[in-house]
Amino acid sequence: MALWDSLFRKNRQVPSKAHEFKWAAPEQRLTAPIDDAEKTIAALRREKAAFVSGGEFIDVIHAKEYGQGVFAYFIVRTEKKTQKESVLFDGYMIQENDRLGEEVVSSSTLMRDLEELGYRQSLAREVTEWRFTIGVLRAAVFEIEGFGKFLEVALPEAKTDKIRETQEAASKSLFKKLGLKQEDAVPTDAITLQLVTLLQQAEQAEAQPRQKRAPGEFKLGKG
Question: What is the second-level CATH architecture of the domain 15-203?
Answer without folding.
Answer: Beta Barrel (2.40)
